[in-house]
From TrEMBL:
Pfam families: PrmA. Transmembrane segments: none annotated. GO terms for biological process: methylation. One of its GO terms (molecular function) is protein-lysine N-methyltransferase activity. Keywords: Methyltransferase, Transferase. This is Methyltransferase.
Amino acid sequence: MIADRTAFIRAETRLLPVPHAPEISLHVADEATELWRKTEEELGAIGLPPPFWAFAWAGGQALARYVLDHPETVRGKRVLDFASGSGLVAIAAKKAGAAEVTACDIDAFAIAAIRINAEANGVEVRAVQADLVGEDGGWETVLAGDICYERDLALRVADWLFSLNARGAAVLIGDPGRSYLPRERLEQVARYEVPVTRTLEDADIKKTGVWRFLGR
């Protein structure tokens, strides 16, 4: 089945440089709705989650840019890219010198996309299909882009990330001002103007922050 997903991704996307991190190229879709329809037809199922893996979201682009510009955040470390989607942030971490990078996502298509994109960028990333919230794999740096678009998910993930931060992991969140970003628990370490896909966002450029928990 992975081979089928791989063929589908290659057929329905194009390998293009990431606007805000052009050192990295991703297999991305031209149009969200059409890809969503084709994904549902491919699997014979309706109501599937959006193809998050097929786009370079603002939070991920900002986080990737920050990691590439501040390689000390990941160099020589065990890194987790949570809800990785396309694998953009994981690839950035590996390019910046991380010793080991795990990219997790619950979507099987995302896992295939992560593997394809890592190969296209000449890096090795461990792709894991799992919801790792509540687990601790001993990661030294944890990266999470665009995770605050849904209230319950944002709260659950924020509490987990806070616990990892409290035990000593460096946790960085990339977010363009989603409704459920827990700003009261965070401080901004960088801000970017990120080009995005207008069909997915409310603007062509999103002002996007990279955040860490207070007290670090």
